[in-house]
Fold this sequence. Notes:
Layout: H1 4-34, H2 37-71, H3 77-97, H4 99-111, H5 122-149
Helix pairs in contact: 1-2, 1-5, 2-3, 3-5, 4-5
Amino acid sequence: MSSAPHRVFRLLVLIWVGSALTIGYVVAPTLFAMLGRATAGDVAARLFRIEAFVGVTCGVLSLALGNVMVRRGALGYRRVRWLVAGMLLCVLIGYFGLQPFMEALRTAARETGFDIEHSRYAARFGLLHGIASVFYLIETLLGVALVWMLPAGPPEGEVQPGRLSAHSG
Length: 169
């Protein structure tokens, strides 16, 4: 098997995990440190939306690619597919499951003339935000584990240039 699928899988995972770590643990806290809470929340919400689509795209593609590679004999991908599936589930629940409710609360607060922090919806929003944050934390921890557990070399069974396989000659 060519090393291209292995490299594409790694690239997808590294884009996903790197962007999730950067947005969640560098960019978002920086926004809240430098901007007002309402503005920082609006910008962070947009960035997390982009991150969710990056996660779904990279997750679906890497899961499909991992399945293809396992079927072709790259058994090192058998266990990492579960981490990808777990991360994808976290994105689907944490963003696509909870975010619409959070956005509805944010919109309802604005319609009453308040930002979410000072509205009657603050407690519900805080609860949903906390749950979404837990899913995001789990996603990123699974992502770190995934990067750590990625097969180190070419897929199993691949003959590297200049080396003989156990089945040759």
